Amino acid sequence: MRRDGVEKFPAAWLLLPLAAFWVTLLLAHPGLPRNDAPSWAMWFDQSHYLDQALQMARGAIDPDRFFYPPLYPALGALAIKLGTPAAYAFEPVDLVCFLIFALAFVRTAERFVPPVVAVALFAASVCARPIAEHWIVPWTTTPAATLLALLVYATCAARVRPIVIGLLVGMLVATRPLEAVPAACLVLVRLPALLRQAEAPRLATLAKLALGACVPVLALAAFDLAIWNDALGGYYRAQDGAAHVALMPMTAFAKFVTLWIDGSRFGLPHETLLAHEPWLFLGLAGCALAIVSGSNALAAIAVALLVHALAYASYVDLTPANLFRFGVVHYFKWTYPYFALLAVAAPFAVWRHARIVPGAVAILLAVLLGCAGWHARSTPVAATVDESVLRIALPAHDVDAVDLDGVSLRSFTWDVAGAAKDGVLLPPRRALHGVAWPDHARLVLVRPLRDGELTVPLDQVELRGTPAARAQRNRLGLRWPVWLQQDDR
């Protein structure tokens, strides 16, 4: 931890250059016109944010058009009430969130590294190529990132009221619920230290934590009851009537390898986080070192980062096909500065606490993880076409993906609707993903299938000759890191 008496970086010095940097990103964005609304106002998520903000600003909420948790739209509604043009309602909100996030990170980092290093780590990591623009395009990950940064700062501070920590966790539920998972893990790891530092009895401290978390959650439930007459609201019921169907935790580790290290399973080996930003491997190694470093605060940050990565790996709709093509990498934007911090601070903490042997083991495990990858074996299978469907014969062994030559998908997204196995419809998104190229396609199975027949409606594909299919089986093993190899495309 930072020694007492070390001067903090003057916060006021950061605000003006950070604001100038954010405004520069905004003005340089190709989606920003001179007179009309920005292009992202027409995107699915952003159009819903704006619509919900306008509904709240007018005080007339339509349950059929209100989907996302209300905190972010409420902030946009406040900006509209204060005179911000509706199309740009979230820009002042995002600017304030960005500034608070930056200051919270720097104040946290100063506990582990010199102040100038803390500022440098933030500046370098926030400018990462795939991340920078997502601080100015409206996303619910922006206020969520700010709340997470404040929570990290609060749990690492010497004395913070437990009710404040609880409020931050509860507000994440009302902003972006999945982020409440790493937030809860952060608090749990830090809980022994928080209880030791608290001036009140342990039971009273726990009660204040719970009370703080319950206030926003109960407020959200009351809002949902008022709008939908259901405490779960629209967001949690959106996926076929149940929130849990969007997550598949049993696939989390394999999907983590696919998203971070080797995207070969989706035919996109270099569409991974490490391939785009190789320095993130140092952050993963820093997480491993932080867990054994002897610093409870660094370990808590590391656990939160890893749980966040695994939580999103279990999210069905997140794949290498949309991670960078559609900017879904913004899910990870809050983590970049903290990965940079652990990459620098964790090795020193290991040395300072004389954890050399555990540190060496942690580095070895990180290297093995970085060498994880997919080994594929393909088998030609029959593919035929009738009046309405493309029929693919599945072999007797497990199949993880099907490559189709002479076939392209009509949609360059990851959705393939109406696919069936032996006449039984497969659940949308939870069973099958499509990856499109101009002259071929890959159907990636979320869980392996074998035996029988896989059918895809012809309205989902475009035939470019006689189709040929190959069933692919993937096995996880060790290989030379794919993210260090040359992308031959």
* Structural domain count: 2
Strand content: 5-15%
Termini gap? 46 Å
Biggest sheet, strands in spatial order?
1-10-4-8-7
Provide the low-confidence segments as ranges: 1-5, 239-244
Q: How much helicity do the residues have?
A: 40-55%
Largest sheet: 5 strands, antiparallel
Helix count?
Answer: 16
Q: How many strand elements? A: 10
Query: Strand pairing plus helix content: what structural class?
Result: alpha+beta
Describe this structure in words.
Helices cover 47% and strands 15% of the residues. With 489 residues, the protein is an alpha+beta fold. The chain folds into two domains: 1-244, no CATH class; 376-482, no CATH class. The strands form two sheets. A five-stranded antiparallel beta sheet has the order 1-10-4-8-7. Strands 2-3-9-5-6 form a five-stranded antiparallel beta sheet, with no helix packed on it. A hairpin with a 3-residue loop joins strand 7 and strand 8. It is globular, with a radius of gyration of 24 Å. It starts with 10 loop residues before the first helix and ends in an 11-residue tail after the last strand.
